[in-house]
Design brief:
By secondary structure, the protein is an alpha+beta fold. It contains 9 helices and 11 strands.
Protein backbone atom coordinates (compact mmCIF):
# COMPACT_ATOMS: atom_id res chain seq x y z
CA UNK A 1 0.00 0.00 0.00
CA UNK A 2 1.33 3.42 -0.95
CA UNK A 3 1.23 6.02 1.81
CA UNK A 4 1.28 9.72 0.97
CA UNK A 5 3.33 11.25 3.78
CA UNK A 6 4.86 14.65 4.51
CA UNK A 7 8.36 15.22 3.15
CA UNK A 8 10.85 15.47 6.06
CA UNK A 9 13.31 17.43 3.91
CA UNK A 10 11.21 20.41 5.01
CA UNK A 11 12.45 21.94 8.25
CA UNK A 12 8.97 22.12 9.74
CA UNK A 13 8.27 18.45 9.07
CA UNK A 14 11.69 17.34 10.24
CA UNK A 15 11.25 19.23 13.50
CA UNK A 16 7.83 17.63 13.97
CA UNK A 17 9.42 14.24 13.30
CA UNK A 18 12.37 14.39 15.69
CA UNK A 19 10.61 16.17 18.54
CA UNK A 20 9.03 12.76 19.08
CA UNK A 21 11.69 11.29 21.38
CA UNK A 22 11.04 7.72 20.27
CA UNK A 23 11.85 8.70 16.69
CA UNK A 24 14.85 10.76 17.84
CA UNK A 25 16.08 7.67 19.67
CA UNK A 26 15.59 5.48 16.58
CA UNK A 27 17.47 7.95 14.38
CA UNK A 28 20.36 8.55 16.79
CA UNK A 29 20.76 4.84 17.50
CA UNK A 30 20.95 4.11 13.77
CA UNK A 31 23.44 6.94 13.20
CA UNK A 32 25.73 5.97 16.09
CA UNK A 33 25.31 2.22 15.48
CA UNK A 34 24.96 1.87 19.24
CA UNK A 35 22.22 1.12 21.74
CA UNK A 36 20.67 4.37 22.89
CA UNK A 37 19.08 4.06 26.33
CA UNK A 38 17.73 7.59 26.70
CA UNK A 39 17.53 10.71 24.59
CA UNK A 40 16.49 14.25 25.37
CA UNK A 41 16.33 17.51 23.48
CA UNK A 42 18.94 19.84 24.93
CA UNK A 43 17.92 23.11 26.52
CA UNK A 44 18.88 25.16 23.47
CA UNK A 45 17.19 24.31 20.21
CA UNK A 46 18.31 26.25 17.17
CA UNK A 47 16.42 26.94 13.97
CA UNK A 48 17.46 29.45 11.39
CA UNK A 49 14.49 31.79 11.63
CA UNK A 50 16.12 34.73 9.84
CA UNK A 51 17.42 32.77 6.86
CA UNK A 52 19.06 34.70 4.05
CA UNK A 53 21.09 32.67 1.64
CA UNK A 54 20.83 29.24 3.24
CA UNK A 55 18.39 27.08 5.11
CA UNK A 56 19.89 25.45 8.14
CA UNK A 57 17.93 23.62 10.81
CA UNK A 58 19.73 22.81 14.05
CA UNK A 59 18.74 20.79 17.05
CA UNK A 60 20.78 19.40 19.94
CA UNK A 61 20.27 16.11 21.74
CA UNK A 62 21.76 14.45 24.76
CA UNK A 63 21.89 10.65 24.37
CA UNK A 64 22.86 8.05 26.94
CA UNK A 65 24.47 5.18 25.05
CA UNK A 66 25.60 1.73 26.06
CA UNK A 67 28.90 0.52 24.63
CA UNK A 68 29.63 -3.07 23.64
CA UNK A 69 31.45 -3.60 26.95
CA UNK A 70 28.33 -2.60 28.88
CA UNK A 71 29.57 0.83 29.95
CA UNK A 72 27.22 3.77 29.68
CA UNK A 73 27.94 7.44 29.03
CA UNK A 74 26.39 10.65 27.72
CA UNK A 75 26.99 11.85 24.17
CA UNK A 76 25.99 15.21 22.71
CA UNK A 77 24.45 15.03 19.25
CA UNK A 78 24.64 18.27 17.28
CA UNK A 79 22.32 17.70 14.35
CA UNK A 80 22.28 20.16 11.47
CA UNK A 81 20.19 19.87 8.33
CA UNK A 82 20.34 22.06 5.25
CA UNK A 83 18.62 22.09 1.88
CA UNK A 84 21.19 24.14 0.03
CA UNK A 85 24.94 24.11 -0.38
CA UNK A 86 26.28 25.68 2.78
CA UNK A 87 29.53 27.34 3.71
CA UNK A 88 31.42 25.08 6.09
CA UNK A 89 32.25 28.21 8.07
CA UNK A 90 28.61 28.32 9.18
CA UNK A 91 28.93 24.83 10.63
CA UNK A 92 32.23 25.70 12.30
CA UNK A 93 30.80 28.83 13.91
CA UNK A 94 27.91 26.88 15.39
CA UNK A 95 30.23 24.11 16.54
CA UNK A 96 32.51 26.65 18.21
CA UNK A 97 29.55 28.01 20.14
CA UNK A 98 28.72 24.51 21.32
CA UNK A 99 32.27 23.90 22.57
CA UNK A 100 32.07 27.15 24.53
CA UNK A 101 28.65 26.36 26.03
CA UNK A 102 29.07 25.68 29.80
CA UNK A 103 26.05 23.34 29.64
CA UNK A 104 28.22 20.97 27.59
CA UNK A 105 30.78 20.58 30.35
CA UNK A 106 30.63 17.50 32.57
CA UNK A 107 32.28 16.73 35.90
CA UNK A 108 34.17 13.69 37.07
CA UNK A 109 35.22 13.83 40.69
CA UNK A 110 37.19 17.10 40.92
CA UNK A 111 37.76 17.48 37.18
CA UNK A 112 35.69 19.14 34.49
CA UNK A 113 35.64 17.79 30.95
CA UNK A 114 33.80 18.36 27.70
CA UNK A 115 31.01 15.85 27.11
CA UNK A 116 31.85 13.76 24.00
CA UNK A 117 30.21 15.25 20.93
CA UNK A 118 29.10 13.84 17.58
CA UNK A 119 28.09 16.23 14.81
CA UNK A 120 25.54 15.01 12.27
CA UNK A 121 25.05 16.82 8.96
CA UNK A 122 21.98 15.96 6.88
CA UNK A 123 22.72 17.61 3.56
CA UNK A 124 20.25 18.24 0.77
CA UNK A 125 23.17 18.49 -1.65
CA UNK A 126 26.16 16.42 -2.73
CA UNK A 127 29.67 16.82 -1.33
CA UNK A 128 32.21 17.00 -4.15
CA UNK A 129 32.80 13.64 -5.85
CA UNK A 130 32.12 11.51 -2.75
CA UNK A 131 29.76 8.77 -3.90
CA UNK A 132 28.95 7.19 -0.52
CA UNK A 133 25.69 8.59 0.88
CA UNK A 134 26.82 8.23 4.51
CA UNK A 135 30.30 9.18 5.68
CA UNK A 136 31.77 8.59 9.13
CA UNK A 137 34.67 10.92 9.94
CA UNK A 138 36.01 9.24 13.09
CA UNK A 139 39.03 10.48 15.04
CA UNK A 140 41.78 8.24 16.37
CA UNK A 141 44.92 8.82 18.45
CA UNK A 142 48.42 8.05 17.13
CA UNK A 143 51.95 8.17 18.48
CA UNK A 144 54.87 9.92 16.80
CA UNK A 145 55.50 6.92 14.53
CA UNK A 146 51.93 6.68 13.28
CA UNK A 147 50.93 3.75 15.46
CA UNK A 148 47.39 3.90 16.83
CA UNK A 149 47.25 4.48 20.59
CA UNK A 150 44.55 2.36 22.22
CA UNK A 151 45.69 2.07 25.84
CA UNK A 152 43.80 4.59 27.96
CA UNK A 153 41.61 5.62 25.04
CA UNK A 154 38.97 6.99 25.15
CA UNK A 155 40.16 9.58 27.64
CA UNK A 156 38.06 12.53 28.92
CA UNK A 157 40.80 15.03 28.06
CA UNK A 158 41.13 13.78 24.48
CA UNK A 159 37.39 13.44 24.00
CA UNK A 160 36.94 17.04 25.17
CA UNK A 161 39.06 18.38 22.34
CA UNK A 162 38.01 16.31 19.32
CA UNK A 163 34.75 14.98 17.95
CA UNK A 164 33.40 12.56 15.34
CA UNK A 165 31.17 13.59 12.45
CA UNK A 166 28.53 11.82 10.39
CA UNK A 167 27.70 13.29 6.98
CA UNK A 168 24.60 12.20 5.10
CA UNK A 169 24.21 13.16 1.44
CA UNK A 170 20.46 12.85 0.94
CA UNK A 171 20.70 13.02 -2.90
CA UNK A 172 23.02 9.98 -2.81
CA UNK A 173 20.47 7.73 -1.05
CA UNK A 174 18.43 7.00 -4.19
CA UNK A 175 16.81 3.75 -3.10
CA UNK A 176 19.77 2.33 -1.17
CA UNK A 177 18.61 0.26 1.82
CA UNK A 178 21.58 -1.93 2.75
CA UNK A 179 21.58 -1.43 6.51
CA UNK A 180 19.55 -0.13 9.45
CA UNK A 181 20.63 3.49 8.99
CA UNK A 182 19.85 3.56 5.28
CA UNK A 183 16.45 2.07 6.10
CA UNK A 184 15.72 4.88 8.58
CA UNK A 185 17.03 7.52 6.18
CA UNK A 186 15.00 6.09 3.29
CA UNK A 187 12.09 8.30 4.39
CA UNK A 188 14.27 11.25 3.28
CA UNK A 189 14.92 9.76 -0.17
CA UNK A 190 13.68 12.38 -2.64
CA UNK A 191 13.18 9.80 -5.38
CA UNK A 192 9.88 9.09 -3.58
CA UNK A 193 8.78 12.70 -4.05
CA UNK A 194 5.27 13.11 -5.42
CA UNK A 195 5.30 14.09 -9.08
CA UNK A 196 2.88 16.97 -8.59
CA UNK A 197 3.60 18.04 -5.01
CA UNK A 198 7.15 18.03 -3.64
CA UNK A 199 5.80 18.49 -0.12
CA UNK A 200 4.71 14.84 -0.20
CA UNK A 201 6.45 11.50 -0.56
CA UNK A 202 4.85 8.31 -1.84
CA UNK A 203 6.11 5.50 0.39
CA UNK A 204 5.32 1.81 0.01
CA UNK A 205 4.53 0.72 3.56
CA UNK A 206 4.86 -2.94 2.54
CA UNK A 207 8.63 -2.40 2.60
CA UNK A 208 8.45 -1.64 6.32
CA UNK A 209 5.57 -3.77 7.61
CA UNK A 210 7.95 -6.07 9.53
CA UNK A 211 9.66 -3.12 11.29
CA UNK A 212 7.66 -1.50 14.10
CA UNK A 213 10.08 1.43 14.38
CA UNK A 214 9.77 2.32 10.71
CA UNK A 215 5.99 1.97 10.79
CA UNK A 216 5.95 4.35 13.75
CA UNK A 217 8.00 6.88 11.75
CA UNK A 218 5.64 6.53 8.76
CA UNK A 219 2.62 7.08 10.99
CA UNK A 220 4.22 10.26 12.31
CA UNK A 221 4.85 11.53 8.76
CA UNK A 222 1.32 10.53 7.78
CA UNK A 223 0.00 12.65 10.67
CA UNK A 224 2.20 15.54 9.53
CA UNK A 225 0.68 15.36 6.05
CA UNK A 226 -2.78 16.04 7.48
CA UNK A 227 -1.66 18.81 9.84
CA UNK A 228 -2.92 22.17 8.53
CA UNK A 229 -0.26 24.22 10.32
CA UNK A 230 2.57 22.05 8.98
CA UNK A 231 1.19 22.35 5.46
CA UNK A 232 1.17 26.12 5.86
CA UNK A 233 4.73 26.03 7.20
CA UNK A 234 5.79 24.01 4.16
CA UNK A 235 4.12 26.57 1.91
CA UNK A 236 6.15 29.29 3.61
CA UNK A 237 9.35 27.30 3.04
CA UNK A 238 8.43 26.81 -0.61
CA UNK A 239 7.82 30.54 -0.98
CA UNK A 240 11.16 31.24 0.63
CA UNK A 241 13.04 28.84 -1.60
CA UNK A 242 11.22 30.05 -4.69
CA UNK A 243 12.42 33.55 -3.83
CA UNK A 244 15.95 32.22 -3.27
CA UNK A 245 15.87 30.30 -6.56
CA UNK A 246 14.55 33.36 -8.43
CA UNK A 247 17.23 35.52 -6.86
CA UNK A 248 19.96 33.02 -7.68
CA UNK A 249 18.66 32.69 -11.24
CA UNK A 250 18.66 36.48 -11.64
CA UNK A 251 22.21 36.66 -10.26
CA UNK A 252 23.32 33.82 -12.54
CA UNK A 253 21.77 35.51 -15.59
CA UNK A 254 23.33 38.84 -14.60
CA UNK A 255 26.74 37.25 -14.15
CA UNK A 256 26.36 35.47 -17.49
CA UNK A 257 25.47 38.76 -19.20
CA UNK A 258 28.41 40.54 -17.57
CA UNK A 259 30.73 37.70 -18.62
CA UNK A 260 29.43 37.92 -22.19
CA UNK A 261 29.93 41.70 -22.20
CA UNK A 262 33.43 41.31 -20.80
CA UNK A 263 34.22 38.76 -23.50
CA UNK A 264 32.86 41.09 -26.20
CA UNK A 265 34.92 44.01 -24.86
CA UNK A 266 38.02 41.83 -24.75
CA UNK A 267 37.43 40.68 -28.32
CA UNK A 268 36.96 44.31 -29.43
CA UNK A 269 40.17 45.34 -27.69
CA UNK A 270 42.01 42.48 -29.37
CA UNK A 271 40.61 43.48 -32.77
CA UNK A 272 41.62 47.11 -32.20
CA UNK A 273 45.09 46.02 -31.12
CA UNK A 274 45.45 43.86 -34.25
CA UNK A 275 44.21 46.75 -36.42
CA UNK A 276 46.75 49.11 -34.83
CA UNK A 277 49.53 46.61 -35.46
CA UNK A 278 48.49 46.42 -39.13
CA UNK A 279 48.44 50.24 -39.43
CA UNK A 280 51.83 50.52 -37.75
CA UNK A 281 53.28 47.90 -40.10
CA UNK A 282 51.82 49.70 -43.12
CA UNK A 283 53.10 53.13 -42.04
CA UNK A 284 56.57 51.76 -41.22
CA UNK A 285 56.63 50.08 -44.63
CA UNK A 286 55.79 53.41 -46.36
CA UNK A 287 58.39 55.27 -44.30
CA UNK A 288 61.00 52.70 -45.28
CA UNK A 289 60.11 53.42 -48.91
CA UNK A 290 61.07 57.05 -48.33
CA UNK A 291 57.60 58.60 -48.11
CA UNK A 292 57.09 61.61 -45.86
CA UNK A 293 54.41 61.82 -43.18
CA UNK A 294 52.49 64.31 -45.34
CA UNK A 295 52.48 61.85 -48.23
CA UNK A 296 51.46 58.96 -45.96
CA UNK A 297 48.69 61.16 -44.58
CA UNK A 298 47.25 61.61 -48.04
CA UNK A 299 47.57 57.91 -48.93
CA UNK A 300 45.94 56.65 -45.71
CA UNK A 301 43.34 59.38 -45.32
CA UNK A 302 44.54 60.37 -41.87
CA UNK A 303 46.02 63.54 -40.43
CA UNK A 304 49.73 63.80 -39.74
CA UNK A 305 48.91 63.93 -36.00
CA UNK A 306 46.98 60.64 -36.29
CA UNK A 307 49.88 59.07 -38.18
CA UNK A 308 52.30 60.19 -35.44
CA UNK A 309 50.06 58.77 -32.67
CA UNK A 310 49.93 55.42 -34.46
CA UNK A 311 53.68 55.00 -34.84
CA UNK A 312 54.48 56.27 -31.33
Amino acid sequence: MILRVANPIYDSVFKYLVEDLRIAKILISALLKKEVLEVEVRKHEYTNGTRDNISMFRIDFGAKVRESDGSQHLVLIELQKTWLETETLRFRQYLGAQYANPDNIGKEESHEFGIPMVTVYLLGHKVGDIKEPIIYAVHKAYDYYGNEVTEGIPDPFVESLVHDSIIVQIPRLRGRVNNKLEKVLSVFDQTHKDKYNRQMLNIDEDNYEDDTDMMYILRRLLAAASDAKLRQDMNVEDEYFTAIENRDTAIMNRDKKIAEQDQYITEQKNQIAEHMKTLQATINSLINRGMSLDEISVVMGKTVEEIKSIIC
